[in-house]
Amino acid sequence: MEVVFDPAKISGFVSAPASKSYTQRVIACALLADGNTTIRGYTGCDDSERALLAAKNMGALIHKGENYIQIDGGHHNNGEFTLDFGGSATSMRIFTSVSCVTPGIKHITGSPQLLRRPIRPLIDALTQLGAKIETSPGYSPPLIVHPTGLRGGEVELDASISSQFTSSIMVGSTRADTPTFITHTGGVVSRGYIRITAHVLEWFGANTEISEEFNQVEVHPSRLKPIDVKIEGDYSSAAFLLAAGAIGGHVEVGNLNPESLQPDREVLNVLKGAGCYVELGGDTAKVGGDVKEGFDVDVTETPDLAPILGVIAAYAKGESRIRGVSRLVFKESNRIDAVVDMLKSIGVDARFESGEIRVKGGGIRGGLVDSHGDHRIALAAAVAAVGAHKPIVVRGFECYIKSYPHFLEDYTSIGGRARVVQP
């Protein structure tokens, strides 16, 4: 899919889509709970749909209504079957632990991109807890997960690559035989997503504890109770709309929890520090003005912001530095190379140097961008066109459905200009 994005004047209101981080976790817990869980505000995206399909294949009864879904958990498929997670690393990793504690032999697979992403630390930790998981060469997916259960107890886990490993074990450990004590070895990243997992588990009645330093996580076996919940808006997706407002006018984005645990709410602080007008009141963020100042930001806790921060930096004065990017190589693309390549393709002086992405501001010319099959690169390139001198053509834009399938509708509703030239 090839889409042309023209320079545009941004103005208007749009409601952020549901947080896929919350949605995927709620779906996994709903499968384990006995009874009907209702998820309100469900907007769907490929990642969330993959989690929902996995729950259905594992035995949950699914009903879809208008902007809500109901999941009747406690039903299980006792056979041998395949769970295909497409490009969703979060779903694959969380459901790997869930597969250990539910009936049936699961063959876990996904897209070629997903199968290249790391999972060995999770497999090693689950094996310590009594899991039987067959891997492909190199401890990579596809996987065959046997329903051995998890015994609980002490387990060491390297979460320096992804906090999703911790989140996975937390969800699965609600069905363990005894309390599970996770000790992080080698550090832990994206801590906010572990908080989100604990938050969701608490909704379902589980008892979890996280040490102040995040070096230990404790999960007690629990009988999860079904819930009725409205999913808050997704700051990761909203970041693209907020950046568009900062670059090319003014935007209001609703359905955003001002007290959210989502790490990517940090985009508001970056925009404010760059000299933009930022206001967060009720559930609506308002952003406008121009990007004035360059910035120095560490994305260790917010790696998904790196592509759009690169675009914002291109419109700032002076040089901006995006640090803490080392694990971006494990995303949907080698996101370090993809961000730098995107920016260079549209006339920006950008480079990876001394472990950080450096961007010299001054504006964007326009040009042709390859998405590298990475939804966040595709969306960042689209927004980059707002204040560009010439249009930006994004090749491989179809990957955007992974996280934000309604982006084109939302973007054009606030003045964005997009033309699909090759479906």
Could you explain how this protein is built, in words?
It comes from Candidatus Marsarchaeota G2 archaeon ECH_B_2. Pathway: Metabolic intermediate biosynthesis; chorismate biosynthesis; chorismate from D-erythrose 4-phosphate and phosphoenolpyruvate: step 6/7. InterPro entries: Enolpyruvate_Tfrase_dom (IPR001986), Enolpyruvate_Tfrase_sf (IPR036968), EPSP_synthase (IPR006264), EPSP_synthase_CS (IPR023193), RNA3'P_cycl/enolpyr_Trfase_a/b (IPR013792). This protein is α/β, with parallel strands linked by helices. It has 2 domains: 2-17 and 233-422, Enolpyruvate transferase domain (UDP-n-acetylglucosamine1-carboxyvinyl-transferase, Chain); 20-228, Alpha-beta prism (UDP-n-acetylglucosamine1-carboxyvinyl-transferase, Chain), CATH 3.65.10.10. The protein has helices spanning 20-32, 46-57, 89-100, 112-115, 120-128, 164-172, 191-203, 235-248, 266-273, 306-314, 335-345, 375-384, 407-413, and strands at 2-6, 13-15, 35-40, 61-65, 68-73, 80-84, 105-109, 132-136, 140-146, 153-159, 180-188, 208-210, 216-219, 228-230, 249-254, 277-281, 284-289, 296-298, 319-323, 349-353, 356-360, 367-370, 392-395, 417-422. A 4-stranded mixed sheet has the order 22-23-1-24. Strands 2-15-17-16 form a 4-stranded mixed sheet, covered by helices on one side. The chain has a 4-stranded mixed sheet with strand order 4-5-3-14, covered by helices on one side. Strand 10, helix 6 and strand 11 form a beta-alpha-beta unit. The model has no long low-confidence stretch (mean pLDDT 97).
